[in-house]
Design goal:
It is a single chain. The chain has 401 residues and is of the alpha/beta class. The chain has 2 domains: 152 residues, Aspartate Aminotransferase, domain 1 (Alpha-Beta Complex); 241 residues, 3-Layer(aba) Sandwich (Aspartate Aminotransferase, domain 2). Helix content is 39%, strand content 17%. The protein contains 14 helices and 15 strands. Strand 11 and strand 12 form a beta hairpin. Helix 3 runs antiparallel to helix 11 and helix 4 packs parallel to helix 11. The structure holds pyridoxal-5'-phosphate.
Length: 401
């Protein structure tokens, strides 16, 4: 059967609008399409492929596990899941892990746990959830409602209730919302989809203090920031602020679908037998690959390498900007970076993305004004140099029309 992009329009539900390119092979940070055209990958499957494509450690883990055991469901546990959970708890504030299959599912579990914890400990009135405008937490109905973009949650009937939003980094607005009926605050410790927006350290610390004061659980959604992306294993570790619940997905499996919610023993206790679950959560294949990814990323060399690569991106983008004057700033942390278009190019992020693809570079946008880069954490330095050279050509193409 010949597979073409037009087949997508024939057979797929039209909720996505994929590029005309159909990749068929990847190795490290290079990808090839059906016609053999090569791309440098600065997108990493939206911050997922933390070790690039087909990293040998992940391929070995997948192959070995695929010849042992694929699936059991949670009527039995399995060795890869328990090994991974032990490593995650050893490396973080958490004592307990719940495995899911995606970021949205991990967040769904976190929100349900927060509501149940508040019900058990403080009674039926404590149901308020506060989240932030421009936040993104997934596409289940609960998570999309908690996410701060009405465009994604409108039009599906009555929404889960008692959820309110304020602007990120607006402490006065947050203080006005939180009270003793708040059961949880969900935030990204660096907003990704919303435009690569870092919190101020004072804001994060004040949110933590106010959550503690009002007995509200602080949930950090680290689906995009987690597993080395910002140069720390988890972003909270670089913010000197510890959440009560943390969710992680994307890079956790390095490209194999897996998500997790992690928390302390006292909170975890409230998700009792039968309260929540998933057929695939903790699947041995997913956990074996994630264990290999976790082991590979959680080393001083890889984490320090993220910071070195961040500097290469910042220097390269500054050079491009000195020639073409298209960005007002480059923001973000580690390898979660956003080049913000200045007023002359406002709203045109997609034009830069399309021009980049034409030059053999895969990149992303975060809204209409930000070009987003989330490459492999171990992208070879020569691929950064070559990718930035291709990006410069794309910028020249947009600027010169
Ligand atoms: C911060 C954050 N949370 C949750 C999600 C949802 O993850 P998934 O698409 O795996 O459900 C995303 C995806 O972009 C994300 O960036």
């Amino acid at each position: 059967m010949q597979v073409t992009r037009s087949l997508f329009d024939d057979v797929m539900v039209p909720n996505y609008a994929p590029s005309a390119v159909i990749p068929v092979k990847g190795s490290g940070s290079r990808v090839w399409d059906q016609n053999g055209q090569e791309f440098i990958d600065f997108a990493g499957g939206i911050a997922v492929n933390c070790l690039g494509h087909c990293h040998p450690a992940l391929v070995t883990a997948l192959k070995e596990q695929s010849e042992k055991l694929w699936h059991l469901s949670n009527v039995m546990t399995n060795e890869p899941a328990l090994r991974l959970a032990k490593k995650m708890t050893d490396a973080t504030f958490a004592d307990k892990v719940y495995f899911a299959n995606s970021g949205a599912e991990a967040n769904e579990a976190a929100l349900k746990l927060a509501r149940r914890y508040a019900l058990d400990v403080y009674g039926a009135d404590k149901t308020g959830i506060i989240a932030f405008n421009k936040g993104f937490h997934g596409r289940t109905f609960f998570t999309v409602t908690v996410g701060g973009q009405a465009a994604y949650s409108d039009g599906f009937g009555p929404k889960p209730a008692d959820i309110s939003h304020c602007d990120y980094n607006d402490l006065a607005a947050f203080e006005a919302l939180i009270n003793d009926k708040t059961c949880a605050v969900m935030m990204e410790p660096l907003q990704g989809e919303g435009g690569i927006i870092s919190p101020t350290p004072e804001f994060v610390q004040a949110v933590r203090e106010l959550c503690t004061k009002h007995n509200a659980l602080l949930i950090f959604d680290e689906v995009q920031t987690g597993v080395g992306r910002t140069g720390d294993l988890y972003a909270y570790q670089g913010l000197a602020t510890t959440p009560d619940i943390l969710t992680t997905a994307k890079a956790l499996g390095g490209g194999f679908p897996i998500g997790a919610m992690i928390t302390t023993k006292d909170i975890a206790e409230h998700l009792k037998v039968g309260t929540h679950g998933s057929t695939y959560g903790g699947n041995p294949l997913a956990c074996a690959v994630a264990e290999a990814a976790f082991d590979t990323v959680n080393t001083p060399e890889v984490l320090a390498g993220v910071k070195e690569r961040e500097q290469m991106f910042r220097d390269g983008l500054a050079n491009i900007n000195a020639k073409y004057n298209v960005f007002s700033e480059v923001r973000g942390k580690g390898l979660l970076l956003g080049a913000v278009l200045n007023t002359d190019y406002a709203g045109r992020a997609r034009d830069f993305l399309v021009a980049s693809t034409e030059q053999g570079l895969m990149s992303l946008v975060a809204g209409m004004d930000v070009i987003r880069f989330t490459p492999s954490l171990v992208i070879p330095k020569e691929d950064i140099i070559e990718g930035l050279a291709r990006f410069e050509k794309a910028v020249a193409h947009v600027v010169n029309g």
